[in-house]
Amino acid sequence: MIPVNEPVIGQKEIEYVVDCLNTGWISSAGHYIEEFEQKWADYCGMKYGIAMSNGTTALQAAVGCIGLQPGDMILIPAFTIISCASAVVNNRGVPVLVDCDPRTWCMDVSQAKGIIEREFEKGEGKIKAIMPVHIYGHPVNMDPILELAERYNLIIIEDAAEVHGAEYLSHYKSIGPQWKRCGGFGHISTFSFYANKLITTGEGGMVLTSDAGYAEKPAA
Predict the structure, then answer these.
(1) pTM
(2) 10 is a domain residue
(3) What pLDDT is attached to residue 219?
(4) CA separation for the pair 68, 129 (Å, rounded)
(5) Could you tell me the sign of the dihedral formed by the alpha carbons of 124, 114, 117, 141, in that order?
(6) Alpha-carbon separation of residue 87 from 45, 65, 94, 106, 133 (angstroms)
(7) Residue 131 near residue 93 (C-beta atoms within 8 A)
(8) Candidate from 93-102, 114-123, 208-217 with smallest mean pLDDT
């Protein structure tokens, strides 16, 4: 059997786990979680980090933050985990599938542009957000997505579950030209720290945002 991934667990990790157990905080709160939240947010260029039980609940919470109304649409790539679609459906929205670029497996932003333009030409404006999903370490072409979001007042929910530490060279007017870390482009971004990810906590996920309203929003 060939494992998908083998996490590297060294002596330092063991020492930290033992120290955490000794503090009595093994769930929900405590020094280690709070430090991880803030340091990960800082690393990705965001203000707030909220630890979650896994990447799926991170997506669910992120979509829940934006206040979808029944029938509101979110663009998602056709090639991604089912959690992206279920987060939209569970929040009363409609996932709109966008084909992927065969070179990167990421969302084809030219097709996303066409879908958005046609929808707004109809005057219905039911598209509320776009969910770029970085796949297999390949960043989505984010500059066109940033432009679409600004032009049509869309929210970007960035799924960065597979690109811990990856950077994208942005030339967008408010950013570049500069390399910017994935997870720092969206109004909200999500991460997974499952056992097969580049950074693992066994299970676990994270929501990042620089919007205090999203960060402090209570669970529905």
Answers:
(1) 0.92
(2) no
(3) 63
(4) 9
(5) positive
(6) 24, 11, 10, 19, 14
(7) no
(8) 114-123
